[in-house]
């Protein structure tokens, strides 16, 4: 079987991890779930750092763990990026990279040093020591060091969790560059919906040590039934888009299924393919095309699903084009007043400024 496959259990005090799951052989797969769901434990098992785990782990048809078989971590050719950078304080940035490169070449692998340095924007940092780096710079070096081992698989354990929003916004394009340009599958652990929506091609959702859902990111993110797992206020959907124009008033114009979107301006070349996350709570629904509103974005679609929660809210899904969905969170009272039902044509109204800069990014291969 191509790619990573696990069928394992790990018993820890007060907790049991039990996962049987195949992972996509390319792109970025997000392992998502609340704190304590087993995300980091799963990565440690994959890396060979949990010798107490029972079961099987294989990659591209090679058993890393199974009956009578255990490949040690240093022979699995895995790159690992932790929550903290864990750089060697006594070495410069160049020295940290050289250390990883020597290990790779000793194992017969040939990393592309210049390509990795360029992809992570490290040209001006090579002579610095870790003590002279910002948190975001240190994480970029940690990612580059992991890539310098020429890994067959890259594991990233909440690499942005210690950074503020500004630092996250600066580093996300570098993770997109890894995802799109390095040709190494990535398993990315996170409990941030916005990170998952922007980066992931596939999602594996963990809860209490077990897989609850797995599949394409756009399908899971736009499924009303999955909204509670992300948190009702964080629920939303992801649209594929193409950059049409950058306007003088600071807005960028995107073509999406169902119409066009105006979003806060961001750096991208004309024609670039991007993805846009739209929070369900920021969407207003109308049965007729609205007029005279300050909101600039109106998308037309077909109502395909309504799902009532425990409280006063209803999650509504609109299909835009062939395979793009928008979620809207409205009240039950509004749903009754509009007499909403599957099959109706509806209009989704979205304020431009409700789309945060972190919610727009490169789409990567689909």
From TrEMBL:
Residues 1-233 form the ABC transporter domain. The keyword Transmembrane helix does not apply. It comes from the Bacteria. Pfam families: ABC_tran, TOBE. InterPro entries: AAA+_ATPase (IPR003593), ABC_transporter-like_ATP-bd (IPR003439), ABC_transporter-like_CS (IPR017871), Mo/tungstate-bd_C_term_dom (IPR008995), ModC_ABC_ATP-bd (IPR011868), Molybdenum_import_ModC (IPR050334), Mop_domain (IPR004606), P-loop_NTPase (IPR027417). Its EC number is 3.6.3.25. Residues 292-359 form the Mop domain. It is an enzyme of class 3 (hydrolase). GO terms for cellular component: membrane. Keywords: ATP-binding, Cell inner membrane, Cell membrane, Hydrolase, Membrane, Molybdenum, Nucleotide-binding, Translocase, Transport. Gene3D superfamilies: 2.40.50.100, P-loop containing nucleotide triphosphate hydrolases. SMART domains: AAA. GO terms for molecular function: ABC-type transporter activity; ATP binding; ATP hydrolysis activity; molybdate ion transmembrane transporter activity. PANTHER family: ABC TRANSPORTER I FAMILY MEMBER 10 (PTHR43514), MOLYBDENUM IMPORT ATP-BINDING PROTEIN MODC 2 (PTHR43514:SF10). This is Sulfate/thiosulfate import ATP-binding protein CysA. The lineage of its organism: Bacteria, Pseudomonadati, Pseudomonadota, Alphaproteobacteria, Rhodobacterales.
